[in-house]
Amino acid sequence: MPAELRQQGYSEAQLRLVSEKVPCREAQAAALLALFGEPDHYSFPSIFIYGHRAMGKSHVTLTLLRELQMPHVVVSCVECVSPGLLFEQVLGSLFDSSAVTLSRSPSLSDFVRLYRQLCAEDSAKHTRYIVLDRAEVLRDMSANLLPGFLRLQELDNVTVILLSEIVWDKFRPSTGCFEPLQLHFPDYSKGLQQILAQDSHPSYSAELYTFYINILLGVFYSVCKDLRELRHLAALNFPKFCEPLEKGEAEESDTHKLWRNIEPHLKKAMQTVYLRELPYYSKFLLIAAYLASYNPARTDRRFFVKHHGKIRKTTFLKKHEKTSNHLLGPKPFPLDRLLAIFYSVVDSRVAPTASIFSQISSLVTLQLLTQVGHDDQLDNPKYKCTVSLDFIRAIARTVGFDILRYLYDFL
Amino acid sequence: MSKRKSKDTQWTAGECVSQVRIYINVKYCVFCTYLNPRILIQSVKSAPCYRCALPYILLALFGQAQKILRERYCYQRVPSSPVGIESQRKNLLELLRRTAIHGESNSVLIVGPRGSGKTMLLKSVLKELFEVREVQSNVLLVHLNGLLQTDDKIALKEITRQLQLENVVGDKVFGSFAENLTFLLEALKKGNRSSSRPVIFTLDEFDLFAHHKNQTLLYNLLDISQSAQTPVAVVGLTCRLDVLELLEKRVKSRFSHRQIHLLNPMDFHQYIETTQEHLGLPQDFPDERFAQEWNSSIKMLCEDRSVKDVLRKHFNTSKDFRSLHMLLLMALSRVTPTNPTIKPGDIQEASRLCSMDAKANILHGLSILELCLIIAMKHLSELYDGEPFNFQMVHNEFKKFIQRKSHSIHNFETPVVLKAFEHLQQLELINPMDGPSAKIQKEYQLVKLMLDHSQIMEALQKYPQCPTDVKQWATSAFG
Description:
The complex is a heterodimer of chains A (411) and B (479). With 411 residues, chain A is α/β, with parallel strands linked by helices. Chain A folds into three domains: 12-184, Rossmann fold; 190-277; 280-305 and 325-406, Arc Repressor Mutant, subunit A, CATH 1.10.10.10. Chain A has 16 helices and eight strands. A five-stranded parallel β-sheet of chain A has the order 2-3-4-1-5, sandwiched between helices. In chain A, strands 6-8-7 form a three-stranded antiparallel β-sheet. The longest helix of chain A is centred in the middle third of the chain and has 21 residues, at 227-247. Chain B has 479 residues and is of the alpha/beta class. Chain B has three domains: 33-81 and 267-355, no CATH class; 85-261, P-loop containing nucleotide triphosphate hydrolases (Rossmann fold), CATH 3.40.50.300; 360-475, Orthogonal Bundle (Arc Repressor Mutant, subunit A), CATH 1.10.10.10. Chain B is 56% helix and 7% strand. Chain B contains 24 helices and seven strands. Chain B starts with 12 loop residues before the first helix and ends with a helix. The chains are: A alpha/beta (411), B alpha/beta (479). Chains A and B meet through α2, α5, β5 and α13 of A and α3, α7, α17, α19 and α21 of B. Chain A: InterPro entries: AAA_16, ORC5, ORC5_C, ORC5_lid, P-loop_NTPase. Chain A: One of its GO terms (biological process) is DNA replication initiation.
């Protein structure tokens, strides 16, 4: 595909403006423009553009259509709860909206009929474009929408452009349809640095910002290649990066010092575990619930009874790693088992007052426990614990309880 | 004055202008809308020789050629004589003629895979039929499409509208579908009530009509075609070979079981000839010389060995014209006006773009962490013979890799790994076993991998700057 934007029918100035607005995506914009052709030429009935998030699919398509002033309409399918909203938006933007009157819940048949009528009154000299963003949602709306839109060119000189993250193989209906032309927007590779560097702060030099971007990419690139997220992280952490410069501790050329300052901060920024403050007994209830969920009932005696004596080896076989309880998920347990474990875990004597039971209910409300089984079962309700091991270890640490000693899987 | 002079003589401004005028007067306004003929003449006046004016003229001619070819590939204009389906065409024409002129009722199904030319066949037959004056004045056409008319009620409204009987029906309420349909057909009877006008119903996507409730529309249409009241022809178009299995017994018995199959029996030699024809410019192109040069370059292109290989690959995948047109359009879009010929390289590049593996492209854009998770899942499915797994198992496998074999991958926190896992789920590279359910926590929901072993290995080869320990982990037999 030609590298720079060149197309008959459009002025040089317009094309140059488009190139400036789509950095690192000139090749894709040129390919798309070559497919569009001149303003009144036919293009392929449907074009499917796919690629990861923030690869510039919508940006490039919309910039092309807007700057080159082609008649178009952009609909985000996520916003369209019903097909009627989709039809209204398309007809309202492409034609004079006063002439558009759709019934209350229009079907595709009504849409096509109205489209044909409006086309006859206002025939297009130039190709019209309908852009459907997040097209994967169309699959779940009525089954005839997607095949219908792919064939819309039978009515008029219109091209439907579908944008999505998901590959076309997942869209194809079982009896087939009119295949669209597929275009891939690959990931940025070298261009990512270039685009991120454009956000530089005015009070610092461009080289400093480029250096900062390189550090940022070094830490986050292996986790996340999404341009939007990286821009957000860059903006978020730049003030911390510039702290030593503002305090006067370092100069712009002291790259090593700046790096040492920011690196641990960035690594910590990747952690998102948060701890909520729970009351003391609630923490123990949660610990007891976790133990009840992840230990099989037959091992309770070994862990929680003071003098349990010797347990036979045969009942204690180490099982296959795959059936480790931590991999399978929490098991439900009855309320009295929870209380039994709770009393053996908590050091001081606690009376079974109502406040303990209300704390169990509040743990359920916080979704740290879930109730399993029927709501009406009042005498012995069953629960299961839905927190992760890291979370419970953090909680256990705050009360000084070594939970790993009590877990069957870590024996 | 002769049209062309030898290269050495200089043309005067007047001669240039008159040359340009010849082009302007041609049927199809050679000059594109943006290029005003007056501006062209002025620039020709300032460049007083034919050679200088040539680029502008070439530009305009190339634009015109593009327009014609694009219309052919995209808009699928019916060619005047479709090839290879002569007997089917004669068959259908005869059938419809019997309905239109002799008043005989008929039903027929045209069956063929997608893109084999069913609609094209029907359109060309109808065009020829309607050239007869008697047919034009008498016969009515109703076009229904299974994609649009998803319900019998909608279908009935559409029939009423197309027969232009909305006023006649008015606000009447009918008890059943059959009543409504008979009323409509009665209303078509001519003044002396002796004969009624023949109606041809075309049902596109016929198999979708079979999914309606009780198949009422099909039953009634075929019932009328069997009873002798109104001459009615029912033509169904479908891509399903097993369409008759979909019909209910009472509907099937009323169908005449006439089927016209369009299974394209083209061989490779005919395929190449068709490609050449579809790439060539038609006889009535404004400039003969340009068209001749273009057509001869196309002939040379189709004799090129690499192009033949590409076409053979496409022919072996699918013979239909839609995929061929997609290939030709992509090749055409690479041609620049300064050098208006299609080169073998263009065809090769277009073929490469058409047959790219989409999933491999998506894998190329994943982050290292996501790639590692996919490798962990591959190992799990190999180890446990394709059984589904959940996030915790994958994370466990990944942690084992980090502890034992890796030096380049950082040990990420669980929420970060979970986010990567969720991204893979969003891309539908992983699918949940029994649909998204709120009851099970997302870490424990069972999922399966939708990628093939070979796809993963290929993606790893092409992945930019893939760390060697990751590659080795992927190729090792057991995690």
